[in-house]
Specification:
- The protein is built from eleven helices and eight strands.
- By secondary structure, the protein is α+β, with helices and mostly antiparallel strands.
- It folds into three domains: 7-59, Alpha-Beta Plaits (2-Layer Sandwich), CATH 3.30.70; 86-138 and 204-279, NADH Oxidase; 140-198, no CATH class.
- It starts with 6 loop residues before the first strand and ends with a helix.
- The structure holds flavin mononucleotide (FMN).
- Flavin mononucleotide binds at residues 97-98, 100, 245-249.
- Flavin mononucleotide is lined by residues 97-98, 100, 245-249.
Length: 302
């Protein structure tokens, strides 16, 4: 079936050429009177032509209208076209810190939906939008994922505790288990003990909800797509007054243990790229903390 392409109303088209000049697929041509028309069907459906047309001559019925925030009263204003409030954006980026202490308060579904709408505004390779989100909307779901992840680390720690297994693998040129033992074994052992003895949650830090961001392995850039969407979630959560924390331990476990994807109902062609704990923070940051110096530590110019 041919892919749906934008519709151009030639009566309205003023022949400015804006859509032609920005179309990433170069599928828009102009007739002898400069009126635009779609010349091919290899459209990635980004909607840039619709977004740029000054004459409202383009329609993209295959795209949804931009989502308005549901948990904030915007007064119905289409705020997305306003100029970027750069300082506000910077503030949000600066203020976002990983949250590891949450109030015992559920996260409204409207807020979760807003996070997901923010997520899908991210760029994606060839506009594949090949991401997939799994929502764990309550603490029970988070604990279930935590327990399956914990089981994986129990097995891994049993293996890693054996010096012969570690040593042989290292000799065979597979130092991963040895490195895990040095870097993580004891931390993980403590965390498992904390959970078993007092239900201390060092994985999700007591978060009442979580979002899993996966992407289709067959899309062109699944990791980039999923991680860009994840960053949007983190920033929007901050803007909405929520705390978040990425939980890499679950991502690593899911990479090796298919039962995690099964639990989350993800088909085999999806890979999990991030797990985001979400909740209302139980503490407020008093002051910002800097990062490494850009120069000379992490920036070189040539
Ligand atoms: C890929 C990735 C995985 C992470 N995994 C965890 C994790 O499993 N547990 C955790 O508490 N924090 C995790 N974090 C949070 C980092 O520790 C945190 O982002 C970093 O220390 C910087 O602090 P900030 O987020 O407060 O700015 C992870 C961050 C990233 C980017």
């Amino acid at each position: 079936m041919a892919k749906e392409v934008p519709l151009i109303d030639q009566e309205r088209c003023i022949g400015c050429g804006a859509c032609r000049s920005i179309c990433p697929d170069r599928i828009i041509s102009a007739d002898s009177s400069d009126k635009a028309y779609i010349a091919a069907d290899s459209c990635m459906q980004c909607g840039h032509c619709y977004a740029v047309c000054p004459a409202e001559a383009v329609a993209v019925p295959f795209l949804e209208p931009p989502a308005e925030l549901r948990s904030v009263d915007t007064g119905g204003a289409a705020s997305w076209v306003d100029p970027l409030p750069s300082q506000m954006l910077m503030e949000i980026m600066r203020q976002r810190r990983s949250c590891r202490l949450y109030r015992d308060q559920p996260v409204d579904r409207a807020i979760i939906d807003d996070l997901l709408h923010a997520a899908v505004t991210a760029p994606s390779g060839t506009n594949s939008q090949g991401w997939k989100f799994v929502v764990l909307p309550n603490r029970e779901g988070v604990i279930r994922l935590g327990e399956v992840t914990g089981d994986f680390y129990r097995r891994l720690n049993r293996k890693a505790a054996n010096p012969i297994v570690r040593g042989v693998l290292k000799l065979l040129g597979c130092p991963a288990l040895h490195n895990y033992y040095i870097g993580y074994y004891h931390k993980v052992q403590d965390a498992l003990k904390g959970w078993d003895t007092s239900r201390e949650d060092r994985l999700f830090h007591g978060a009442p909800a979580a979002l899993i961001v996966a992407a289709d392995r067959n899309s062109s850039c699944p990791a980039e797509d999923a991680l860009l969407a994840s960053q949007n979630i983190l920033l929007m959560a901050e803007a909405l007054g929520l705390g978040t924390c990425l939980v890499g331990y679950v991502v690593e476990a899911a990479r090796r243990d298919p039962s995690i994807s099964r639990l989350l109902g993800l088909e085999k062609h999806y890979r999990i790229y991030s797990v985001v704990a979400v909740g209302h923070p139980a503490l407020k940051w008093m002051r910002p903390v800097g990062r490494k110096h850009l120069e000379p530590d992490i920036l070189t110019s040539i």
